[in-house]
Write a structure and sequence with these properties.
The chain is mainly alpha-helical. The protein has three domains: 142 residues, no CATH class; 111 residues, Up-down Bundle (Receptor-associated Protein); 64 residues. It has 15 helices and no strands. Helix 7 runs antiparallel to helix 12. The longest helix has 46 residues. It starts with a helix and ends with a helix. 19% of the residues are buried.
Length: 327
């Protein structure tokens, strides 16, 4: 069996695992949060959900993803993956996400094998890129969700301030936020309210919220609420002042983002241009690129490629650091 056949079989198996994982995630009836909250109703009777039939329990517990996920529960790897998926609001189990990464790696290997005309090195590089693509997507989803959350934070504070001044308790104000505001802030505060209704202290529920949303503005709000619960004071006035501060920060961030957009775009173009050019030359004129790897040119060609990669990464990071302005 030649190398091409081995890679095609491996890619096909990876793609099959990917499809199975996606189907399990999409067809699952309950989210990860609902699953965890449901454990309280099954064991302690804290929730008044309708009882499941024996067939429903069997289908849920016999899930392939749940079976494999039990082997990694409690490990640092699975805890880190779970935290990243929760911050991105992706309804995947850690084992499903790992299967997804291997599936995209196999798919990348197949594409690289055909694009590289059977070259193993090109297929390996494409597999590495495919393995990293899901992680890039999760990071992008986290940034997008965090940006939406920060933009909605001032509306949440205004709603809480109005509720507190109208005589609501802090929990009732949070319930109003979970009902009135759009996603993602309504979903997160709905989780906080659910946890508090299960008997978890407000400080712990807000700490869980901070784990899911890594926001400096939210950290300021949570600190103010916790301090007010310890020492007392007018929470409505405190949150009103914080709302004004956050509103000004969001306005300044928008102005800075508009002013630095050209610099960020330049960094991406300059970094991607040589990589895309090399890939195009490898596909269109492979002999020209492969002269760097011939025995007589190898001692010079490989260090040149490594040096070029280092310079591209260094320049990209330097430009990103220049345009990243903290407020």
């Amino acid at each position: 069996m030649d190398t091409t056949m081995i890679l095609m079989i491996g890619g096909g198996l990876g793609l099959l695992v990917l499809i199975v994982g996606v189907l399990i995630s999409v067809l699952g009836e309950r989210s990860v949060v609902e699953e965890r909250l449901g454990r309280y109703s099954e064991t302690g009777g804290l929730l008044a959900d309708a009882p499941e039939s024996a067939e429903q329990v069997f289908e849920r517990r016999s899930s392939v993803a749940d079976f494999f996920n039990r082997f990694g529960e409690g490990t640092d790897l699975f805890e880190g993956i779970s935290a990243n998926l929760a911050r991105a609001d992706l309804k995947f189990l850690p084992v499903e996400f790992i299967a997804l990464r291997f599936g995209t790696a196999g798919l990348g290997a197949i594409i690289g094998m055909f694009a590289g005309r059977g070259n193993v090195l090109f297929a390996v590089l494409a597999a590495i890129v495919g393995y990293m693509v899901p992680n890039f997507y999760v990071k992008a989803a986290q940034r997008s969700r965090l940006k939406k959350f920060d933009n909605q934070l001032t509306d949440m504070l205004n709603l809480m301030v109005n509720g507190l001044r109208a005589g609501f308790s802090t929990l009732q104000a949070m319930e109003a936020v979970s009902r009135e505001l759009p996603r993602p802030i309504s979903v997160e505060f709905h989780r906080v309210v659910q946890e508090m209704q299960l008997g978890i202290q407000m400080e712990e529920a807000l700490e869980h919220l901070m784990r899911r949303i890594n926001s400096d503005d939210l950290d300021l709000v949570v600190t103010a609420i916790n301090v007010q619960r310890e020492v007392g004071g007018n929470l409505a006035e405190i949150l009103d002042t914080i709302s004004h501060t956050i509103r000004e920060r969001v306005r300044l961030k928008g102005q800075i983002s508009a002013l630095t957009a050209q610099g960020r775009a330049t960094a991406w173009v300059i970094a991607a241009l040589p990589i895309i050019l090399v890939l195009l030359l490898f596909v269109l004129n492979r002999e020209y690129i492969m002269t760097l790897f011939t025995p007589e040119n190898r001692m010079c060609g490989i260090p040149m490629i490594i040096l070029a990669a280092i310079l591209i990464v260094t320049g990209f990071i330097a430009v990103q650091k220049i345009v990243a302005i903290d407020i």
